[in-house]
TrEMBL record:
Annotated localization: Cell membrane
Presence of the UniProt keyword Transcription in the record: no
GO cellular component: cell surface; extracellular region; plasma membrane; side of membrane
Known role: Cell surface proteoglycan.
Signal peptide coordinates: 1-20
Protein name stated in the entry: Glypican-5
GO terms, biological process: cell migration; positive regulation of canonical Wnt signaling pathway; regulation of protein localization to membrane
Amino acid sequence: MPMLLLPILLLLSLVPSLPSERPPSCHEVRAAFQLQEIGRGRLVPEVPIQVSDLQICEPKTSTCCTRRMEESYQAAVRGKLTHNIQTLNFELKFMIVAHTSAFQETFTYLIDTATNNTLSLFDTKYRSMSQDAHESVKELFTDLSLNIMGADMPLEDAFSRFWDSLFPLVYNHLINPGIMSLSGEYLDCLRLTRQDMNPFGNYSSEMLTHLSESLWASRMMKQALSMAEQVINSTEHAGLTRECTHALVKMQFCPHCQGLTLIRPCVGYCLNVMRGCLASLASLDRPWREFIHLVEQLADQMSGSHDLEQSLLGIRDVVDKSIRYAESQGPYLSRMVEKVCGELQESPLKQLSEEKTMKEEVMEQPPISKLHSLGHLRRDFIKHVKPSRTFYTTLAERLCDGDLAVRDGSTCWNGEDVVESYTNLVVSSDFKDQVNNPEVKVRGSNVVINQIINKLRLFIQVNDPCHTAKG
């Protein structure tokens, strides 16, 4: 043997034999299938197979996917997209629900404060009829609270009942304090004749106008917040079309069928798929913007001359002025009442009016804490609600941001293969533009979303703050 060949033979004997190419396996696909909790690992074949019954992921040669895997993938993408929409909705929904609770708490606090403020008028200045007046005062503010809640409780009717119940007390304790008590029939007569005699003057007219507008703005804000919550809930349960589900599977899981478990979709591709899937939600964009604008107007309406705090606390002063006016008209009212209801018999022990002998007490309006200030609350609400104007037109962008898709410049999945960039047309989020969407066929609008859009538009039309008449 030639001496030159000997070292070469020795070297070759030391090198292990080169293994043949590793046989194809679906191990990584099975691992991803289980880790992402899509289904049981046994659904994934051990090695790529030749199949012809796949509906979505069309194999170029052999594949790691089966028809049953596709069904599991469809369930997975539906659940995932619904979860992602709910996650995006959460912050907006939390803000709406939190402010709904805060507004309700503030309304309740203001009603309670104004009730106690008005009761104190009788406890400090009109003590002789304080006990009898308490029930009427509480009933009045209960009616105002129901008005804010949206009940059919006209403001004029609430105050009419209050003045009707107050007139017999004023007549008995201030105008004719010598009468120990009045019969039920006489009290009924006083209540029935109150409107004809107008014993309390017109002090409540201007107050009713301001209070009516304040209550209207607060009531509409409460209803608007309820409407916003309905819209958000509807978008979470609108359902996905068959075309959308197939497009999502093709984007997220069809690469797995080729063993490409780590590749991510191109961002343009992702935007097309998501905009096609969310076309109905994007159609909410314009009515939602108009709705948010309306809500901002309602918040503005709750300030200035429509300030509910001042309107409610001002009731005490109006009641006081009205009672003093009736007292000043005592002789005239007595003559009118006697003509209609008959003469009264005075008690032998004529009492001096307690109000005539006591020093008039002046009570300042109770302060409203910042926690329960309607002005502070509405400013905070406007600050948080403004950014939500574009919520429904930017859903696709937010879904495709982060880990779901990759920007151009990195290898990505375009629905068919691994590429450097996505070259198809990327459509806008407008519903009308989806006719040109290359990835998702949008056949029509969503019934559930159409219903909520109609509700929004009706709410906007009916509750435009520019409309008059608020009672």
